Amino acid sequence: xxxxxxxxxxxxxxxxxxxxxxxxxxxxxxxxxxxxxxxxxxxxxxxxxxxxxxxxxxxxxxxxxxxxxxxxxxxxxxxxxxxxxxxxxxxxxxxxxxxxxxxxxxxxxxxxxxxxxxxxxxxxxxxxxxxxxxxxxxxxxxxxxxxxxxxxxxxxxxxxxxxxxxxxxxxxxxxxxxxxxxxxxxxxxxxxxxxxxxxxxxxxxxxxxxxxxxxxxxxxxxxxxxxxxxxxxxxxxxxxxxxxxxxxxxxxxxxxxxxxxxxxxxxxxxxxxxxxxxxxxxxxxxxxxxxxxxxxxxxxxxxxxxxxxxxxxxxxxxxxxxxxxxxxxxxxxxx
Length: 335
Ligand SMILES: [Ca+2]
Description:
Elements: H1 2-26, E1 30-36, H2 43-56, E2 60-67, H3 72-84, E3 92-93, H4 108-113, H5 137-146, E4 153-158, H6 162-168, H7 180-187, E5 188-194, H8 205-208, H9 211-220, E6 225-228, H10 230-233, E7 237-238, H11 253-262, E8 268-269, H12 271-281, E9 287-288, E10 292-296, E11 302-306, E12 312-316, H13 319-334
Parallel strand pairs: 1-2, 1-4, 2-3, 4-5, 5-6, 6-12
Antiparallel strand pairs: 7-8, 9-12, 10-11
Helix pairs in contact: 2-12, 5-6, 6-9
The chain binds calcium ion.
């Protein structure tokens, strides 16, 4: 009888393991590093809202958030948003002042950071005491990558290629004996970028703000790259009527950023959110181009050349996919 019970127990344990495995397969999480030029366009803030939703749903682990935009407001605003959404523990890093594009205008990120209530108290709580003491992105990325399993990290770049190019050139350090390019090849699964224009030979902001870095990244990055190009995000628009629904617990720093960017009556393009959605959810809502190579010329124009052994692809959407993506985007940000 005991033998029979042992057999039953062994069977139940196996069944439980099998079911747990199936559950985990369905809830596969990505390890992500997000690299953003927070403050230039509101779509970075919308992407951050979606990222926090993914974290809440257990669909992604965010290992680091790096700035590719200079100035303290990019990191301060990111910290405010992360504090508001309840995930202030994700380390934030700065772009090196020696490498980043120079942007000195005031942006929605500055304005939200300066908001106060009627008594003069800052409207939004923050977690980082002094953003100027944060590490540079290349340092944080090396530290984070060194601690991860091989080929497990997805980089999502929704700003300039500044930090990606700089990371490739980093030397061995206390975190890893590998130089940057070898460390990336060992630890990174893929790079998903909002960058370039695959429909027309026109410059795209993320590329032409740091052409040298974009050229280096597309030429030397040692893993597959998937691009969400300009012409895609331009078609997926967040309807301004839904800004009031971004969160009913007011004030919300993403909603305030939206209004402080271009006012309250424009529909924001979703260049950055589409890159993040692909990085976390895969190609279910998109069509992938064939493999090939994306080159960047000295004027910042991107060109795709198909080839069977190419490491690069870009995302394409039909009208029906634009509708589905827009509905999904609005749901992720407002519900
Ligand atoms: Ca951006």
